[in-house]
Amino acid sequence: MFGQIHGFLNNFYKYRFLLLELIKKDIKAKYKDSVLGLLWSFFNPLLQMIVLTIVFSTFFGHRIPNYPVYLLTGRLVFDFFANGTRGSMSSIRSNASIIKKIYVPKYMFSLGVVASEFVNFLISLVVLVMVMIATRAPFYISLVYTIIPIFLLIILIIGVGLILTTLTTFFTDILYLWGVMITMLTYLTPIFYPISIIPDKYIFFFKLNPIFAVVYTCRQCIMYNSFPNIHYILYLAAWAFASLIIGVYIFYKYQDQFILNV
Amino acid sequence: MADNNKLKTYLFGHDVRKLKNEKAIYNVILVDENGNPLKDEDIILNVDTVDYKRKTKADGFSTLNINLSFPSDIVVKYEGNDRYLPSSTENTISIDEPDVKEIERKKRIKAEQEAKIEADKRKKREEHRKKFPVSDEVAINVDHVSMEFDLAKEKVDNIKEYVIKKIKREIKPKTKFRALDDVTFKINKGERLGVVGFNGAGKSTLLKILSGVMKPTRGNVSVDGKVAPLLELGAGFDYNFTGQENIFLNGAILGYRKEFLEEKYDEIVEFSELGEFIEIPVKNYSSGMKAKLGFSVATIVQPEILILDEVLSVGDIKFQEKSRKKIESLMSEGVTVILVSHNTNTIRSICNKAVWLDHGKLVEFGDVEDVCDHYVASAKNASKAQLKNLKLN
Fold first, then answer.
1. Number of CB pairs < 8 Å for A and B?
2. In chain B, how long is the greatest CA-to-CA distance?
3. Which ipTM score applies to this complex?
4. Chain B partners within 8 Å of A169 (Cβ)
5. Is B166 part of any domain?
6. Which of B160, B231, B255 sits opposite A15 (nearest CB)?
7. CB neighbourhood size of B375 (10 A)
8. Number of domains in chain A
């Protein structure tokens, strides 16, 4: 066991530069041939927020103080999850030409996508800060606690990403199935509406969604100056580490067969 | 007499008393009395009472391919027409009786000379090999390795199909294809192993397993040392990246460190001969430029184990020479080399050990000269047998 972990760390250390190069490649590929390039990571959430605010602020605006910030917090977190898992799951297939020819630790491709999406996420946080300044929202000290749910979110994305990558390599359907799942989750997560509009008898099911826990706790830290709810954090942590363990397990179990299937 | 108005004609054929071959080409020329060649005239060549009709060409020549079995008389006749008088010529062709003893003697001398040359070559190669010390430490241990591929006739890659077939119990036991079948050998540090075998013998699969791309279905492979697989040049080039960016990306895929690449960057660019092209995206490169860049990045390391599929030489003649020399320098003292090649001469000149694979099975492993001799002999037999079965219509 220790030998394996040692071997893994050694290998990871050897290929750490590859991770950096993959992040660079992914980011460059994302905005390939566009004039604004990386600035799109900034404009995309901004424009989305403006449109959604115009549309929904009449419905929910009076219930939610500072609707733009509320919306943006949810949107950014959710987009990170959606893009991270979606990119991760096709990473093995899209790098099949490399995997078939040269030995590379395969999880690097999955990890690389998650990391580049994280960079994207960090860039789009600038939008959040700007919107907070523009709406004169206070900057609470509790902002620093966002690190906790975000860290757990990264673990969750890596774990779910590894599970999906393994499944997609054997069944292409998962790619489309997950697309549907993401769309459903967009509406099942209180991104643009307040959780209070959900009838009490269904609220339990909404709270099962781990992304809800991330969104909720992030808003607590950013908007309501409070420490993230410990129950939500624990629930999220359980999801994150469970998916990471399952992900690592099945990825390692089946990774030698990837080459035969892609 | 009308004949008085006609021109005289002459037929000349060669009179060959002795021929070495049973097959011969017989030429005749038809000219008029002034020496002008006559075109498109019918002549009859009679070889051993068989007539062959031929027309003369523009230069008056006519040619006949003949098979001769004994001294032959050739009578060539021209019948003449309203302008020319007829003519004829008679010649003899005989075959030289082959001197069996003389031929045998010459063959023997030739064989002796060849054997001597071969022996000299072997000696030279042996001396060359002795220059590379072989250590007692095992570098590569291939232990009962088998590699199987599924040969599914229908690929089930979506869940619906999978579930339906599973329920109907229609998922047939897949037919397995064994690319490698229980292969075992060991090579020490500093040894050079040549891999020979016909197409589909499992050579490439073996290399892929040794370089870590594939895991064997059964058995173990242990490789001790830094491996540089020179199998695929420029794998993972991103065509939107410039040459410079691709040096780092490709280097990272090969597992090089950033500092190492920065240190060697100038050397790579210089070797690749790309000059200022290094600043433009690889999508605008010619295939030769891509190959040069890939080669330059891949060969920048000094590996402990070098894995090669054919001795690579890429680019134009000038670069080929350069890349061949580079490979030779990589094969310096103490480096373990694994080389796949169809050219047994290359293998003999580089390797000291060889492994012969056939249909995934190890046929022979041992000294390079022995293995190559047996392999070549078997290849000759195989091609003879195949040729025998070929029906020529």
1. 77
2. 107
3. 0.82
4. none
5. no
6. B255
7. 22
8. 1
